[in-house]
Design a protein that fits this description.
single chain; 8 helices; 15% strand; 7 strands; globular; binds nicotinamide-adenine-dinucleotide; 44% helix; Rossmann fold; alpha/beta; 267 residues
């Protein structure tokens, strides 16, 4: 398996790791580079991208780093311009950024609700708005948005996060349909429980030495009995971004070990 993205220019937004260690964005950036893409790696802080750069270069891949807060529309326009100035085009956009805040309507502050919508949804609106003119001019492109099973089912109280990820699915349908005739595909990947460093760091912060209890509890909810790894999402995104998926548009590809088939939830 190689060269599935040969010669493509791919923007990976949220290509770093907020807690260090492997994240979904980092794994995807690595898989893209391994398959021949030049990766324009974006994150809110350049320090978040250091490991991504080091790991891509270690496998002989090509990567450029760019600091950008995707909640800032002007910064997103400048980021896409910088990519096109450097490499001439944009073939793939992976919209991976998503922040989390726990709580229902009685616990989540209005400020945090707005922040979730601004980063998780409006950020994707900004990136799509900035890349689409280039993809239209080129005659095509592939956009993949990272949602969550939280858009499909309840697993813990996180009403703002769930609403934002539901909006990501709708945005995917809207962009995919409106730009299909221009050769642009827009799909979503829908991860279940994934052992990114951010997740395990959260369990450790909440439960200290007993953090594995949360892992075991989640494993019991998943029909396969296992949590997923960032690589599981990266491989699904690779398929959606590649020409192998040339007839796939508006799809919500669930990668969750079967979790969304179940009704188990906890308040
Ligand atoms: N880990 C899971 O179990 C899981 C499950 C379902 C969905 N997801 C989704 O997968 C995505 C990645 O999750 P992860 O666990 O790998 O998280 P992560 O926090 O490790 O990675 C996200 C990256 O986005 C960056 N980022 C955050 N805000 C940004 C901003 N405003 N502008 C630019 N970059 C910003 C962070 O610095 C980080 O490097 C998110 O959209 C998340 O909602 C994760």
């Amino acid at each position: 398996m190689a060269d599935r993205l040969k010669g493509k220019i791919a923007i990976v937004v949220g290509a770093g790791s907020s807690k260090g260690g492997l994240s979904i964005g980092m794994a995807t950036a690595l898989v893209f580079a391994r398959e021949g893409a030049k990766v324009f790696a974006i994150d809110v802080g350049l320090d978040h991208l250091a490991e991504t750069k080091q790991r891509i270069e270690a496998i002989g891949g090509e990567v450029a780093l760019h600091e950008c807060d995707i909640a800032d529309g002007g910064a997103v326009e400048a980021m896409v311009k910088a990519c096109v100035a450097r490499w001439g085009r944009v073939d793939v956009l992976f919209n991976n950024v998503g922040i989390q805040a726990v709580g229902g309507p009685l616990e989540l502050s209005e400020e945090n609700f707005d922040r979730l919508m601004r980063v998780n949804v409006k950020g994707m609106f900004y990136t799509c708005r900035a890349v689409l003119p280039h993809m239209i001019a080129q005659g095509g492109g592939a956009i993949v948005n990272n949602a969550s099973v939280g858009a499909l089912r309840y697993s813990y109280p996180a009403v703002g996060y769930m609403a934002s990820k539901g909006a990501v699915l709708s945005l995917t349908t809207g962009v995919g349909l409106q730009h299909a005739a221009q050769g642009i595909r827009c799909n979503a990947v829908v991860p279940g429980y994934i052992t990114s460093e951010r997740m395990t760091a959260r369990f450790k912060q909440e439960l200290g030495d007993n953090w594995m209890d949360e892992v075991r509890k989640r494993e019991k909810n998943v029909p396969s009995g296992k949590l997923g790894e960032p690589w599981d999402i990266a491989h699904a995104v690779l398929f959606l971004a590649s020409d192998e998926a040339r007839y796939v548009n508006g799809t919500k590809l669930v990668v969750d070990g079967g979790l969304s088939m179940t009704t188990t939830g906890r308040a």
